[in-house]
Amino acid sequence: MTKTRGKGGFPPEFVERVIESVDPIQIYGRYTNLKRSGKNFRGLCPFHREKTPSFYVDPDRGLFYCFGCGKGGNVITFLMEKEGLSFPEAIEFLAREAGIPIPERRTFSPKTQNLHEALETAHNFFYENLFSPEGRRGLDYLAERGISVGFARQFRFGWAPDSWDSLKKFVERRGLPIKPFVDVGLLIENPETKSYYDRFRGGVIIPIYGTSGRVVGFGMRALDPGDGPKYINSPDSPVFHKSEILFGLDRARRAIRKQGYAALVEGYFDVLSLWQAGIENVVASCGTAFTAQHAHLLARFTKKVVVFYDGDSAGLKATYRALKMLLAHELVVKIARPPKGMDPDDVARQWSRTKIERLFQSAPDWFDFSVEIARTQTDWSQIESKLHFADRIGQYIYSLGDSLLG
């Protein structure tokens, strides 16, 4: 993807506001005739001559990609490439289009810029590996999870070779400094030998995008984890804080506003499978428990949330933890559960979009759900059990705090 960076910069929240305010179809449509193609738009590429349309636009994420020449990015990188604008000039152009006052520019931190460069370099490395012969295992795994090749290209999945030093050697061959790759957790230092090795090895790479559309970290599904974890995530860094980032929000935010609510799930593939099923107002926490910061972020985009976690006991505990955070931020919460023997990923892959939407729309509110769970766990033939039921509901409501009581 073309880099969206210039000599000067603006506050991140201003850039995000500009991106959220513009209609990407309107911008791209000035350079080519776009026609609806499924959930995307398609037209002749404005960057090279062609007779068959290969230029695609994802209206929800605002991203474009040409399968003919390989150019891709967002409205900012599009204008930079097409009009020869710098990053600040493209931002100012879009701000004027949206009628947003332009603040005084400030300079990007060189360190932060180097970290973003390292992340972009690694992302390109992983992405290219996925579509190499070595990445065949990754594509096969994605296919097993119901992820098409087209979606893999669009979302820019990747493959981390099953080697301790593939990325490190790639970085060294290009004469790039090692430190930024260490600072974002892509490379790890061996304290005994003072050498470096790759964090991500032998798995499918899932890019984690910030709300502005830039890659800020990665998740990896290891294919042969052995005794190790199935999922490995980027550690916190100056540009990535797991407790403050919701996976998929960059793509889901427009759908959330359109649908009037967000669906909250637990895992990366829960989000991805639901997107593939046509349900795009879905987000998840990034390999960590749902936090107050997550709830605060979600509250910027909606006041209604449907929690859709696993139906087992662990999923129920996680549901209640998330519920407490959401209610503390005065969000209206409903709880949807997959049928017995299924998880959200199963639902996404086996049910129709209409059936899934019906599940979300008919989900009970948090209190009715909690009462029903407690009721099914009560022995109504025993007075002690009945008293415990009443005490349980009372204590649960009390534990949620004053936010419930107005």
What fold name goes in the CATH topology slot of the largest domain?
DNA primase DNAg catalytic core, N-terminal domain
What portion of residues belong to β-strands?
Answer: 15-25%
Count of strand segments: 16
* Main sheet makeup: 5 strands, antiparallel
Query: What number is the mean pLDDT?
Result: 87
CATH A-level architecture of the largest domain: Alpha-Beta Complex
Structural class: alpha+beta
What does the overall shape look like? globular
Low-confidence stretches: 1-8, 402-406
Explain what this protein looks like in three dimensions.
With 406 residues, the protein is α+β, with helices and mostly antiparallel strands. The protein has helices spanning 12-21, 24-28, 75-83, 87-98, 110-130, 136-144, 149-155, 166-173, 179-183, 249-259, 268-276, 292-299, 313-328, 344-350, 353-361, 366-376, 383-399, and strands spanning 35-37, 40-43, 55-58, 63-66, 72-73, 158-160, 187-189, 196-198, 203-209, 215-222, 231-233, 246-247, 262-265, 282-285, 304-307, 332-335. It folds into three domains: 12-98, DNA Primase, Chain A (Alpha-Beta Complex), CATH 3.90.580; 110-240, DNA primase, catalytic core, N-terminal domain (DNA primase DNAg catalytic core, N-terminal domain, Alpha-Beta Complex); 246-363, Dna Topoisomerase Vi A Subunit, Chain: A, domain 2. A hairpin with a 2-residue loop joins strand 1 and strand 2 (40-43). The chain starts with 11 loop residues before the first helix and ends in a 7-residue tail after the last helix. Mean pLDDT is 87; it is low at 1-8 and 402-406.
